[in-house]
Amino acid sequence: xxxxxYGELRDQIFRQSFPNIYAPAILRDADSQYHPLPISERLVQxxxxxxxxxxxxxxxxxxxxxxxxxxxWNLEAGPDFHHATVKVGDDPEVTGAIEVHLRAEDWxxxxxxxxxxxxxxxxxxxxxxxxxxxxxxxxxGDAIPQIVLQNQLAAPIEQLYDEIDLDAYPxxxxxxxxxxxxxxxxxxxxxxxxxxxxxGDERFAGKTRRFARWIQRLGPEQAFYxxxxxxxxxxxxxxxxxxxxxxxxxxxxxxxRSAAIFFGVAGFLPIKQTDAxxxxxxxxxxxxxxxxxxxxxxxxxxxxTGIRPANHPHRRLGAAVALLKRHPNLADxxxxxxxxxxxxxxxxxxxxxxxxxxxxxxxxxxxxxPQELIGATRAAEIVANIVLPFxxxxxxxxxxxxxxxYAALRPASDNAIVRLAGEQLFAKAAVANRHVKTxxxxxxxxxxxxxxxxxxxxACRLCQFPELVRRWASGD
Length: 476
Ligand code: SF4
What we know:
alpha+beta, 7-stranded mixed beta sheet, 2 domains, 19 helices, two-stranded antiparallel sheet
């Protein structure tokens, strides 16, 4: 069948817009006609993930490569695979990241040589030979061993293209479970549940101990404030939000809670493209600026790219200011909510701000439909990870109420770690979902992943978690 008009236009646009991601078309004979195959980096990632490669891989400088573990597929910023274990030539086995490209020079084109996220890449995997004579280097100057797959594929690229279902990766393909999956599969469901509960309690106890240390050092209000600010920073800007909370402590006067001071100290002012709200902030801030000069955060503190618009730090900071205005004594209110059997999540859900309900960024395009500043999912996560451990640490008399709340919380929405941990331990996301019925069990899964998977450098071979499961089953 001849290519559709849409297909032609798509290929044309992709080739113009992403010359480094979409290769020049590979031609093949099909129905006596030549059709272009859009070979993408994603296809090469799938090939690497499933190791559809010949035995006896070699680097471009002729050294043998043994792939002990191809790595965990990374769907976030940074290299394509994390935690891979490879052995190159006579060098010792190493565990680190793998980056995949169509051509060697894409490493430079994509700016990885300057990016700290790529510092621990241990192998550069490229499909085609072009430019592969030069070894790429990390930001730290380390030369990265490189392999070209072109002549080391298990089947011709056209065949792999036909056989691989790109949509299924990485979550709906089998064969990527860890060594413990078989041991866990033999454990009765009730035992899996109590094991996850117990690991979840361990994680909760760790968070409670952390809050107890903060409370001792900072006092309860500041400790709680730093905790929820950190949570509003999500993963990418946790440290930035916490630092901001330290630079603008909760004990300072009402003034310190003005949006101008928060946005100014955060380093977000002035903003080039602005609106009436941005102008108002700047008008207040430029006068106050000298008083806060030593507190201002440098621009590099923030990660502003690769983030969902609704989670942009501008918007989250707008939510933080609104929360402080709405509940200046939030720590007391969450304790009262636990004590009276109320719902502490409501305190976070009640936050309103006309500007930030309609904007993702300062001076950005207004959104027609208002959006909650802190949604139900985030509020539930704040309750599980911040409110309950804080109350447990600060008010031991409420320990049993806290424990009951924690045990009853429904699992939080799936995140990348939960998905990956589920697939590693239970082989399939569906099996993991069957076992993980509460936040407590989900936290248990994350705890096991952090204790064992993240510390394992042997691609499961030396991991002691299967032994832990065996002892759990036998009651040792
Ligand atoms: S590292 Fe350990 S806990 Fe993680 S998947 Fe492998 S065997 Fe399981």
